Amino acid sequence: MSVKAAFIFIAPDNDPEKHRAVIDSPVVELSVVGVKSYDEAERVAQELVAEGVTDIELCAGFGNEGTARIIQAVEGKALVGVVRFDLHPAFDHQSGDELF
User: Which Pfam families would you find in this protein's record (predicted)?
Assistant: First the structure.
């Protein structure tokens, strides 16, 4: 039995309908979804949990505020982890909290 997990990445111009993939390995079924805002990430996280995802990892573009918002959005129905850069190199060395 595999675990259903997800990775959400954030960047301007992402569209969660287009920027999405599922990688099905023997141990993990991993959904990868791109979003363009914290609001969109909250909605996507809730949808993923409704589909059975129990673990969500957030890209380094999510700052402390963004991470807290996703944790609140899933209401304890999934574990939330985060890849960390204090200042993300792809966002001109800014935190996602400054941008999203």
Answer: DUF6506
